[in-house]
TrEMBL record:
Belongs to the peptidase S8 family. PROSITE patterns: SUBTILASE, SUBTILASE_SER. Residues 340-424 form the Subtilisin-like protease fibronectin type-III domain. This is Subtilisin-like protease SBT1.2. Residues 165-269 form the Peptidase S8/S53 domain. CDD domains: PA_subtilisin_like. Gene3D superfamilies: 2.60.40.2310, 3.50.30.30, Peptidase S8/S53 domain (3.40.50.200). Residues 54-139 form the PA domain. InterPro entries: PA_domain, Peptidase_S8/S53_dom, Peptidase_S8/S53_dom_sf, Peptidase_S8_Ser-AS, SBT, Subtilisin-like_FN3. Keywords: Hydrolase, Protease, Serine protease, Signal. One of its GO terms (biological process) is proteolysis. One of its GO terms (molecular function) is serine-type endopeptidase activity. It holds the Pfam family fn3_6. It comes from Heracleum sosnowskyi.
Amino acid sequence: MLNSVANEAPWIATVGASTLDRRFPAIVRLSNGKFLYGESMYPGNNSSSAEEELELVYHAGSQYGGDYCLKNSLLRAKVRGKMVVCDRGINERAEKGQVVKESGGAAMILSNTEINYEEYSVDVHVLPATLIGFTESLQLKKYISSTKKPRAQIIFGGTSIGKSRAPAVAQFLSRGRSFMDPSILKPDMIAPGVNIISAWPHNLSPTGIPEDPRRVNFTVISGTSMACPHVSGLTALIHSAHPKWTHAAIKSALMTTAYIIDHSGRQIMDGDQPAGLFAIGAGHVNPVRAMSPGLIYDISPNDYVTHLCTQKYTRSDIFMITHKNVSCHDIMQKNKNFSLNYPSIYVVFRPRMKSKMIKRRLTNVGIPNSTYSVEVKPPEGIKVRVRPQRLIFRHINQSLSYRVWLISRNMTASQRLSYSHGYLKS
């Protein structure tokens, strides 16, 4: 969802979630011969009864909540031995399966609603079950409502690798822009966060449901909470190779080497549209390239304090963050035209504002006697000038600065864009 990004402080890495090209197909075969794609990590697919064709029921409830399979919402007489369709939402996905199981149901189809679109976050269900996308759920419900005795079976396909475009943006990802700090593009980057197989404590079931007696070493989890550990691991890896780098240098290495092209050679997708920068930030992390970025944008702690002053934080606000008493008036007097040395550039053109100058400073962490030239793809409606256009580094750890002027082209009111983006690379 746009404008929902959190954890947007410039000194932290804000990581979005992406998909892998690994899937766990569990296809629904309707009795009319049609197939609906779904995914599941139900572990009992060696059981002969797991793929049995069963009668389908939907809204099989005695009170409100039967469509979502809420606790005590299903009548045993209506669901016993049948495959129950449960809409996604309100309660946890795996919990719906437990409700179906306790009510005597034999299997479950979990159907995405419009808000979840075609997002497949799989679960280790307590009974034969699969998750289908929103488009498939519409087809399924149309079939149920038009058929006197609808029936279906779930065909579990194990693990499929390399047969889908990836990475893609996770549907549940919070997207920019940030209302708290509109001068910083967030998220910073994306990393794998959908259907990640992760270590799991033995005092919890793989579904997290108290009624689930199973205990495992690993389970499958989706979320930015899975993407962040990937970046934490990459940060540790880079730090081991470059122990003197600051955290800002490491984040810069991850951001400036990220990619925006998926495995098929096409642009990373966000649903059925190419992903924008409010979804992917600098792009998808690239561990190999991040180890040797060539150049980095470094930031000192004092730079962050100056940035807070530019954002009109009060003395007490800054004290809560830094535990230091500072005078923003004095700081701003010494740092006129300050812009944080961030690895991305985000400019807001306010009414009657025609241009903005941004300064950046690069540090050479590659090889001595190296020259970098700039390549610019300007955002639509914006003219971009960079000076100088070449930076010549004589030695390692040398820092050089450049300036970027972003000039808004004259456009009529009907031509004005809410957002546009481009890139600057060397």
